[in-house]
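Appendix B. One record, verbatim.
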Amino acid sequence: MPKSDIIKGYIAISISMLFWGFSFVWSKQLLNAGFPVFTIVFFRLLIASVIFVTLFHFQHKLEKIAKEDRRSFFMLALFEPFLYFIGEEYGLQQVSASFAAVIIGLIPIVVSVTMYFAENEKLSWTLLLGTVVSIIGIGVMTFGPDSQVVFNLKGLSWLMLALFAAGGYSVLLARLVQKYSPVTVTTYQNLLALPFYIPFVCIFDIRHWGAIDWSIQSLVNLTCLAILCSAGAYMLYSYAAKHISITKLSVFTNAIPIITICGAALLGQEALTLQKFAGIAIVVAGVVLSQMRPHRQALT
């Protein structure tokens, strides 16, 4: 593969992590404005789908899905954003945020093992070591002197669902981006995920809509989540997956807390301490290590 394509892939994944990192900041502001959780995700997907279909359908950039791939697209949307979000959201309600961050940090290892069994992709020791280092960095960033670790099996089970969903999503994405454009993959992923959320919005959220603060700032935050995160970030991630191994890309997700912490600090929501700077440095070192080519290519 041309080196220029690989460089473009790394640029794409870096921008997608930037968008996803800020998504937590925008989501927190919407939660503070009274938006229920499922409502936020539903409108993110709805706005992103309308924009993508409007822009790309009439430009004939949306490819027709082959009959044999329809199930794969359905499962892609089921795994992520639906099952992943459900697992992460309900897991966070049961355990402390610091514990959840470390568990979610295991995604690159889960993806590597899943790809090994599903696609026979070899396990790289530098990738696994880099992942472990990045998880340590996440722990340094999130565990403080006053941190209380809240853990129970129910919460862990929900987080394990999120890990399972991330593994399944990665396998399907790695296959589909070889046949379809990032625009097509992202558009159908968002469209197919929408119906999954309708029952949750109707059962849990609609009765709370009267308390929502539909301010200009809230609409801006929701639009940013839709365009930059649900549309842009997933499209960039799919583009990067065309040019870089999905197992290497997955390690970049451990850098998301860095963006979130820095974004919250810029908005005055959180203070940057020496401990957090140390954690950031460790995470960056782990991500860089994970991208290195080992002298012995892989573990088998």
